[in-house]
């Protein structure tokens, strides 16, 4: 049985998906509240930059992977002219049913009955060359085989399309000591006080440390077959936005 990482733990690959699912089933209803607290609201700025860089135009087809509570999908639906333009198509997806349900309900509250689909990003149930834009925000690090997921994202975008990966990364050296204290002391404490779940937020901090840094992820995307990858390190490198292009 092949092994992989679940935070700092080494587990069987077959176990990881279930363990990650348990984390997100637990945090789904408090996800956005905790994101605001943990990032001091910065996650909204990072996502706005991602939305701007996606450059979604009316009539385009967009897939948001690990879409969580639906904020990116909502913005893309407006940009693509969903329900107005005949060719516009925006999908919200997540591997976790609890997260997908929260996102679906939030979109419905805003009058958007976007199609929602639950799947593992390592096997995307869409044909090749279908989407103009694919995004994944803070979801790649939880995937067992990131190389497979990246290859699948590349497969489903059209020539000229782009994949945007927004993910935590390795901060600048001067920020690292403070970032470590915050991640391993403050985040679990917030998780306990707000979501009554310190362990899930301890895992989230560990999963960030196990995720590749910006340069390594760029090389992974190139190895997956992207023709070009544009990297933007944000907030002292705490987060990185990678934009993969298919010629």
Account of the protein in words:
By secondary structure, the chain is an alpha/beta fold. 47% of the residues lie in helices and 22% in strands. It has 9 helices and 9 strands. The chain has helices at 13-27, 31-39, 42-54, 71-80, 97-109, 146-156, 176-195, 198-210, 214-224, and strands spanning 3-6, 9-12, 61-65, 89-94, 116-118, 131-137, 157-168, 228-234, 239-245. The strands form 2 sheets. Strands 5-4-3-6-7-9-8 form a 7-stranded mixed β-sheet, with helices on both faces. Strands 1-2 form a two-stranded antiparallel ribbon. Helix 2 (31-39) runs antiparallel to helix 7 and helix 7 (176-195) packs antiparallel against helix 8 (198-210). The chain is globular and about 50 Å long. The model has no long low-confidence stretch (mean pLDDT 92).
Mean of pLDDT: 92
Helix content: 40-55%
Q: Please report the distance between the alpha carbons of the first and last residues.
A: 37 Å
- The total count of helices amounts to 9
User: What's the main sheet like?
Assistant: 7 strands, mixed
Strand fraction: 15-25%
Output the radius of gyration: 17 Å
Element order, helices and strands? EEHHHEHEHEEHEHHHEE
Stretches where pLDDT falls below 50 for ≥5 residues? none
Q: What order do the strands of the largest sheet run in, or round the barrel if closed?
A: 5-4-3-6-7-9-8
Choose one word for the global shape: globular
Count of strand segments: 9
Q: Which structural class should the secondary elements be placed in?
A: alpha/beta
